[in-house]
Amino acid sequence: MSLKKVYNIVGIGANVCDTLISLDEYPLEDTKRRAQDIVQSGGGPCATGLVAAAKLGENCAYIGALADDAGGSFLLEDNERYGVSNELVRVQKGAASFSSYVLLGQKNASRTCVFHRGDVKFDSLDESQRQAIRDAKLLMVDGNYLEAAIEGARIARESGTLVLYDAGGLYDGVSKLLPYIDILIPSEEYSLGITGCQNADDAAKKLYETYRPKVVIITQGKRGGLMYDGKEITRYPIIDLEVVDSNGSGDVFHGAYAFAMCKGYDYQKACLFSSAVSSLKCTGMGSRRSVPEFYKVIETLKEYGYNEFEEDME
Description:
This protein is α/β, with parallel strands linked by helices. The chain has 9 helices and 15 strands.
């Protein structure tokens, strides 16, 4: 099967039908509370990362399977809405979609997620999916559909395609994936959990020494994060903006980082750029629809004194 086009960024991982419920504050158990807003949105680390990269201007495709239920139909439409190709998606009849309900408490800027994984199966790649990975500049994975992700990462390593891992959960068997990762971006919680270290600096060094990626970036929420490339620890800030919805901010960071790698940014510049994209996303409702366009990111960085990005608008 020949592909319609070459996709610079492809991804294997979760694609989730989210229902976002905005409340003034988190409700007490066994009570009723009026929602300020209820919004259906696509979610999932890998798929949302692909949307972020596509909205910033890169050509992207999702590799995976979706159910033929209402949630799956919504996710197919959502991919198309934001410019992520469905060419490499399989649709499974009679399956139930990965779905979640996310309660957003405005008082404390809290996020509480209740999810059900559904029963979509995706354990191996077909030849068109393998070829898309060989042709891509970067493959994104998030630990979901692990066997397919490992197969894809092996193909990427053989083909010179970079592999970026959005490491947000301690999945069984993920140690088999980590040796194939070039850009390892775990949350602080994940990095401490998998290494047993007491602080993020030591965790970054241990992850680097154990799995030998090109770079380790640890995200630390409101504190920004840090980067380790085998030489020294460097830190990056957040852009401090008003938070409306933090759901999916880490996913957007990863997608922005993938975009930045394809654009040719160095690791540190990519960290700052991705942090700005994630901060801007949090100013609106919905992890995908609030991802900013590229020009808005550059304008915001310039407003905060980061003039090294101005040349990218030329």
